[in-house]
Design a protein that fits this description.
- By secondary structure, this protein is mainly alpha-helical.
- The chain contains 5 helices and no strands.
- The chain has helices at 2-6, 18-25, 28-57, 63-90, 92-96.
- The two termini are 32 Å apart.
């Protein structure tokens, strides 16, 4: 919702089709970037799935503490996205290196 409210409306550069999508996907760097995004997002959400049982058994945390840990994990991911975007704008090499 924030993007809809803050980003300006831009006219389309042209008509996009499935052919255009497949032409873009022919670029190796685009495929690598999409794979990286898929792996990062999957890993982030898999963390929520597997961290809870681990926290119940290994340090034997109660459900309230586990909820706080997962909340902190989610907030960290949220602000980490902003920090990563800021770094990528300044220097892509620094952001990924």
């Amino acid at each position: 919702l924030m993007q809809v409210a803050t980003l300006p409306k831009l006219p389309p550069a042209g008509v996009a089709s499935f052919r255009t999508l497949f032409e873009v996907l022919k670029r190796p760097m685009i495929r690598v970037a999409l794979l990286v995004v898929l792996l990062v997002a999957s890993g982030h959400f898999a963390g929520f799935t597997y961290v809870r049982p681990f926290l119940e058994k290994v340090p034997a945390l109660d459900i309230e503490t586990i909820s706080l840990v997962l909340l902190a994990y989610g907030i960290g991911g949220f602000f980490g996205n902003f920090a990563g975007g800021f770094m990528a704008e300044r220097s892509l090499k620094t952001a990924v290196g």
